[in-house]
């Protein structure tokens, strides 16, 4: 059964319509892992600091904006949360389709093009 990825409401003046958005596709891709041919050991990715040439723990990693090669502005998660994003809680409607153009198959629904 599809999982709801967003829920909210659309308002048209005094009329409010509740909306639940579900993904329209299923993921059928194949996931591969990388192995060493000689002994079939799993190959993993290590996060290494370029300056210290040592592996870095996840807790030591942060985000930053590179202004120039020698000047990086650190960005924290709190900085990102405080950004006033107008699209953070909005969804854009491109078009409405007639109900007859939507095919329902079992517990799945898809648009007929």
Automatic annotation (TrEMBL):
Top-level lineage group: Bacteria
Span of domain Ku: 11-102
Classification via InterPro entries: DNA_bd_Ku70/Ku80 (IPR006164), Prok_Ku (IPR009187), SPOC-like_C_dom_sf (IPR016194)
Keyword DNA-binding: yes
Keywords carried by this UniProt record: DNA recombination, DNA-binding
GO molecular function: double-stranded DNA binding
SUPFAM superfamilies: SPOC domain-like
Keyword DNA-binding set for record: yes
Gene Ontology biological-process annotations: DNA recombination; double-strand break repair via nonhomologous end joining
Name of protein: Ku domain-containing protein
Protein species of origin: Streptomyces mexicanus
